[in-house]
């Protein structure tokens, strides 16, 4: 016994192709009868999008319909849509037709709707729209409100990237792979997250990473027509490097530099003459250099993280400086630079992904797919990265991560993540920033004002240092707020 297909499915479905192909892809999967035909109505500017959708829909029969530069021309749109309909009706007068007007321009929607509605011989055409607010497919009804139908189609993250013809320059990491490649480090994520709920510690450790770790493992280089940039030293040099964990080492290194300097006074002159030069400017520089090496009030906070690393036996009890090679080996990193990246903040991405996975385990079916470190390159060779992302059915959720606690940088990362996420996931997409800023609600509110998003809309969320300790609760709440806010 065959099961009757839902009333809203049709034999021939017209899709208006816009800049985001995701709604078209969902509509094709949901609204077309088995063995039916998709018609992709596109302009010159969206021809590549139509080609991509067609490839993704194989082996479904797909026919592209090009409007050229006439995407606002009512006569062209009418003729292009009605011509194939008339040809089909000659052979199959009982076939059904539909139009999904989620994509395309406003002119394409209006004139496409009229073209299908007015063509002779079409019985009860189906018009539909994928609503970003309710996350439902709205099926139009004569003289009545649209009939909402749930969209249960589930998208993988890889499918979303493929729809936009984005190339992953590095395979994303799943949480299972994370556990398999570095199992010992998994126990450190929650420990560091708990410590970073203290804004003072977060600032101190960020300072250590920028001023102590980075100069030890990176070098400033100038590329042609570009400003100075930090680049990784060779892995061999990083393995040979040691990084100060306490002020003692910094003082010792300063002393060594000073001793080396005064061994060779100029032309045999007294040492004091070397310092008198330029009104004792060198002495001032040395004092500033010492202040930059260690800020005294940061020391107790840095030592709290060092204690965790020692308690977990990543560092010896008596060490005042760490061998990066030793830390890399104990953490099972393939390269020493990966160990540096982890200390510098990559641990937060690992932690966020683990929290997403905890939500998924405790709430089966809530999260469909997840991963981290999506390094992406578009057709223009422009590169960007998604830190952590997951899908709920076909809806994209992206989380940008930073251990920074300063408002300008946090706001910049959130805005960039918002733009990229909207480009990929459309109006349905949601974005969050996980950071160490101590007033996340203020940051969230500011960006909502700038992007004209309603105050209560969970389209944008910010989780600060106070939320880090139990992040999974806040992530789950964010997903549920999304469901409540957009409930029909």
Topology:
Elements: E1 10-16, H1 22-31, E2 32-42, H2 47-57, E3 61-66, H3 74-91, E4 97-100, H4 106-118, E5 126-131, E6 136-141, E7 144-150, H5 157-163, E8 167-170, H6 175-181, H7 188-195, H8 199-217, E9 218-222, E10 228-232, H9 235-240, E11 242-244, H10 247-262, H11 271-293, H12 299-311, E12 321-323, H13 324-330, H14 336-362, E13 369-377, E14 383-392, E15 395-401, H15 407-425, E16 430-434, H16 440-450, E17 460-463, H17 471-485
Question: Can you put this structure into words, describing what you see?
Answer:
The protein has 488 residues and is α/β, with parallel strands linked by helices. It has a domain at 10-153: Hypothetical protein VC1899 like domain (Restriction endonuclease-like) (Rossmann fold), CATH 3.40.50.10770. 47% of the residues lie in helices and 21% in strands. The chain is built from 17 helices and 17 strands. The chain has helices spanning 22-31, 47-57, 74-91, 106-118, 157-163, 175-181, 188-195, 199-217, 235-240, 247-262, 271-293, 299-311, 324-330, 336-362, 407-425, 440-450, 471-485; strands at residues 10-16, 32-42, 61-66, 97-100, 126-131, 136-141, 144-150, 167-170, 218-222, 228-232, 242-244, 321-323, 369-377, 383-392, 395-401, 430-434, 460-463. The strands form four sheets. It has a seven-stranded mixed β-sheet, sandwiched between helices. A six-stranded mixed β-sheet has the order 8-13-14-15-16-17, sandwiched between helices. Strands 9-10 form a two-stranded antiparallel ribbon. Helix 1 (22-31) links the parallel strand 1 (10-16) and strand 2. Helix 8 packs across helix 12 and helix 10 (247-262) packs antiparallel against helix 11. The longest helix is centred in the C-terminal third of the chain and has 27 residues, at 336-362. It is elongated and about 105 Å long. The chain starts with 9 loop residues before the first strand and ends with a helix.
């Amino acid at each position: 016994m065959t099961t009757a297909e839902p009333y809203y499915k049709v034999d021939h479905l017209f899709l208006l192709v816009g800049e985001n192909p995701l709604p078209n892809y969902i509509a094709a999967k949901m609204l077309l009868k088995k063995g039916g035909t998709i018609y992709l109505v596109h302009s010159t500017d969206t021809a590549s999008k139509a080609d991509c959708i067609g490839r993704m829909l194989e082996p479904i029969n797909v026919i592209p319909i090009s409007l050229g530069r006439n995407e606002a021309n009512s006569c062209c749109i009418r003729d292009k849509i009605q011509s194939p309909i008339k040809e089909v009706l000659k052979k199959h007068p009982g076939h059904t037709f539909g139009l999904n007007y989620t994509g395309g321009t406003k002119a394409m929607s209006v004139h496409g709707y009229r073209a299908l509605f007015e063509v002779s011989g079409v019985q009860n055409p189906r018009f539909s729209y994928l609503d970003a607010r309710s996350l439902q497919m709205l099926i139009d009804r004569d003289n009545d409100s649209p009939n909402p139908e749930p969209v249960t189609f589930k998208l993988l993250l890889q499918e979303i990237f493929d729809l936009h013809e984005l190339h992953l320059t590095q395979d994303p990491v799943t949480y299972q792979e994370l556990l398999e490649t570095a199992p010992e480090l998994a126990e450190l994520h929650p420990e560091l997250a708990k410590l970073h709920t203290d804004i003072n510690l977060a600032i101190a450790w960020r300072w250590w990473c920028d001023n102590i770790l980075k100069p030890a493992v990176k070098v400033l280089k100038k590329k042609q027509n570009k400003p100075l940039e930090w680049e990784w030293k060779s892995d061999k040099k990083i393995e040979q490097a040691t990084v100060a964990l306490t002020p003692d080492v910094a003082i010792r290194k300063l002393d060594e530099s000073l001793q080396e300097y005064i061994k060779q006074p100029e032309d045999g002159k007294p040492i004091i003459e070397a310092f008198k030069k330029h009104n004792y400017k060198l002495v001032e520089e040395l004092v500033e250099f010492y202040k930059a090496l260690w800020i005294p009030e940061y020391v107790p906070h840095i030592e709290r993280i060092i204690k965790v690393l020692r308690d977990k036996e990543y560092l010896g009890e008596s060490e005042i400086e760490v061998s990066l090679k030793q830390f890399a080996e104990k953490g099972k990193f393939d390269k020493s630079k990966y160990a540096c990246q982890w200390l510098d903040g990559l641990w937060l991405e690992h932690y966020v992904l683990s929290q997403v996975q905890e939500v998924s385990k405790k709430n089966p079916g809530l999260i469909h797919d997840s991963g981290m470190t999506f390094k992406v390159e578009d057709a223009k060779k422009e590169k960007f990265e998604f830190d952590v992302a997951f899908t709920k059915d076909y809806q994209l959720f992206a989380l940008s991560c930073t251990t920074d606690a300063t408002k300008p940088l946090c706001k910049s990362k959130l805005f960039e993540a918002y733009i990229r996420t909207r480009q990929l996931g459309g109006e349905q997409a949601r974005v969050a920033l996980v950071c160490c800023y101590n007033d996340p609600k203020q940051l969230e509110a500011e960006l909502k004002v700038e992007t004209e998003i309603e105050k209560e809309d969970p389209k944008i969320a910010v989780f600060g240092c106070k939320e880090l300790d139990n992040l999974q609760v806040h992530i789950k709440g964010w997903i549920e707020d999304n469901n409540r806010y957009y409930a029909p």
